[in-house]
Amino acid sequence: MVKILMHGCNGHMGQVIARLAASDSETEIIAGVDVSDHITNPYPVFKSLEDYRQAWEKDESLKADVVIDFSSAAAADKLLDYCGAVQMPVVLCTTGLTPEQLERVKTVAGKTAVLKSANMSMGINLLLKLLKEAAGVLAPAGFDIEIVEKHHNQKVDAPSGTALALADSINEEFNNEYTYVYDRSTRRQKRDAKEIGLSAVRGGTIVGDHDVIFAGEDEVITFSHTAYSKNVFAKGAVQAAKFLKAKPAGLYDMSDVIEGA
Q1: CATH of the domain spanning 2-120+231-260, picked from 3.10.20.880, 3.40.50.720, 3.40.50.300, 3.30.70.360
Q2: How many whole angstroms separate alpha carbon 207 and alpha carbon 16?
Q3: Which parts of the sequence belong to the Dihydrodipicolinate reductase N-terminal domain (predicted)?
Q4: Is 61 annotated as a binding residue?
Q5: Which residue blocks in the chain are alpha helix, DSSP H?
Q6: What is the DSSP letter of 245?
Q7: Catalytic position from the list 7, 151, 210, 225
Q8: Is 106 in the active site?
Q9: Which of 137, 163, 169, 230 has its CA at a distance of 20 to 30 angstroms from the CA of residue 31?
């Protein structure tokens, strides 16, 4: 049994993860941390990590094996300090971390196991792996590479972090020889062979849709991933928590979970 502390338990994703963990015979949410108390949970919820620490020091049954974090970048510093201090593994799902915070992630990974990924979906992370192999075959054969991502109309950043991760996974295969092109409206020139185009669509309630297009002479190969709900990210986080239990200190990502599955 993997005992999980849900950091940001009263947020939308925290609640989704709690429901999934409750239906998984291998996991249990034993406590939560959230500044908000507007939701009643079947496990104790603490206002701060320090309050939680004092509680499990008195009652060892409250001590978690792993923290899953779906909170905010503003809360990341205290979480990282806590996990480093008590050497508690953490699945870090919060996005929008500053460069300084990302450096802190690396520092804490020297003390305990930290899993951080641009996207927690198992499908996306398998796709990242498959794209390397596909690009290694298709790009030298003259196939152009384009990425089209679609998200809901409330998403403020473009392209998505996942689209960039997909592009990066391909680019790494070629020692980062490719440049990224985000907008061709001001360009009056032919497409360069060493570029990856990234296009963003925003509309409605699209959770997440990514197409990676390899366009060659007289044939097109498309890798597609569609998320129909945010459950896919929650499921990935729970799988990551199970993977991370008892792992040695180090920085992990979802590719490690895929390989260990």
Answers
A1: 3.40.50.720
A2: 15
A3: 2-120
A4: no
A5: 12-22, 49-58, 76-86, 99-108, 122-138, 161-172, 231-244, 254-260
A6: T
A7: 151
A8: no
A9: 230
Looking at the DSSP assignment, which residues form a beta bridge with residue 151?
A: 202
In whole angstroms, give the CA distance from residue 242 to residue 124.
Answer: 19
pLDDT at 69: 96
The domain locations on the chain are 2-120+231-260, 122-227
107 is in an annotated binding site: no
10 in a known ligand binding site: yes
Closest CA to 68 of 132, 24, 123: 24
Rounded Cα distance between 71 and 22, Å, is 20
Has 152 been labeled as part of a binding site? yes
Q: Which CATH number does the domain 122-227 belong to among 2.40.10.120, 3.40.50.720, 3.40.50.1000, 3.30.360.10? A: 3.30.360.10
Does the active-site annotation cover 155? Answer: yes
Q: Tell me if 2-120+231-260 shares its fold with 122-227.
A: no
What pTM value is reported for the model? 0.83
Catalytic residue among 63, 78, 111, 155: 155
83 annotated to bind ligand: no
88 a known binding residue? no
